[in-house]
Amino acid sequence: MAFSYSSFNFLFLSSALLILSATVTSTHHFRIKEATIRDIQIQFKDEKLTSRQLVEFYLGEIRKLNSLLRGVIEVNPDALFLADKADKERKVKAAGTLNWLHGIPILLKDNIATKDKLNTTAGSFALLGSIVPRDAGVVMKLRKAGAIILGKASLSEWAHFRSSGAPSGWCGRSGQGRNPYVLSADPCGSSSGSAISVAANMAAVSLGTETDASILCPSGSNSVVGIKPTIGLTSRSGVIPITPRQDTVGPMCRTVADAVYVLDAIVGFDGRDADATRKASKFIPHGGYRQFLKPDGLKGKRLGIMRDPFFNSVTGTVITQAFKHHFNTLRKGGAVLVDDVKLSNMDIFSNVSYGEQVAMLLEFKSSIDAYLKELVVSPVRSLADLITFNNKFSKLEMINEYGQDYFLAAQMINGTVNVEKQLRKIFEKFSREGLEQLMRKKKLDAVVTPGSDISSVLAIGGFPGISVPAGFDKKGVPFGICFGGLKGSEPKLIEIAYAFEQATNVRKPPSFKP
Predict the structure, then answer these.
(1) Which residues are known catalytic residues?
(2) Would you list the domain boundaries of the chain?
(3) Where is the Amidase domain (predicted)?
(4) pLDDT digits (tens, 9 = 90+) for 366-384
């Protein structure tokens, strides 16, 4: 079921505000809105809530809010059938044998393949009606855990890698995604729909993908928690690619705990992404990540505050005061703050960032061609076909307004294996002499930056990061705080992020300001 969209009007905004002020659908006085996975599972156990009731609630919220927010492209026509199936399984299986995600509805970014009645299109009409050969690796794991695939979230089309001129959150199939806190604010991309939908309670949890900032940025901008995992910790098989060197899949949820439950379900080896997932599997702790949800997780942690250039670029009295307060919170929690740490090679960062763009253009063509050729049915089979499609259907896709300069550049750029190898060496040297050297020299457990400003450093190195809600500016637009670390440092980052979240409780439901 695809959702049509109409131009925004204030009559609908008024209706949405009335909806938000009304009593939220409840079962036996349990409020589903803002409920966590733990809350829901307790209600399941006490037989006060069913997966069908849960799915019906989220489908209702999508019907009410999606024409305003455009965070969802499609809902799964089998969602209620899957909910009934989960309810039956819960009745016959022994207590304690079901995964935490069992019976939980999840939205997937529309570049994550599902072998069902849903489309997988990266937000583009070019792939509408295409048929994938199988579920993405992470989707297989979600189904095994008993999660209910609720639908596909919108995104910045082609993961924001078609046009440099298109705004964050815009895609041909669903239009412009809107920030649920301040509708005119940037929802950030490219996993904007995943963040929008979870923030507005149109789903329990969601998945996004990141190549550079695409989980961390929308998480901060929409006041949700986003985990950008170490490269290879989660499989990228069946995910519409930009570059396997940087692409990763991660959870976007309302709480750190919920994100960790989802992370536990999707990590691990996948034979279709064997090299990366085999290397990263050594980082997965015995017993999973849930054990690191510790309220005292800040105690003894050494955190590097990266003022130059990240915190020095923060503007606005409200935001500045918020981070000053957060630093005190981190100290009170037992963390040691190592102030004003710097990357020794930050002076060459702009050149490295340019190299990152060149490398992505070089790697995109071969990656997308390989993905398209593997589709069972598809109207396009190569990047050249995509360009032709966009030219042919320019009015439908609004190409005349936003163009497809990334596609054209990737198609025309002349690269060789040697060029790619040279760039990889530059990136490895930058990471080794930058973040890795800094953290080891200062004996840091994590670095701290505002928003997603450190995303390129993390992306180039394949390093993990977690964004946690940190406040709202004077207009009511959310912002986040990011904790980043070296490969495999998810356990420490989770301890830090969870303890910070529990100490601050910054997040609140969206306000839908114009």
Answers:
(1) 109, 190, 214
(2) 34-292
(3) 54-493
(4) 999 999 999 999 999 999 9
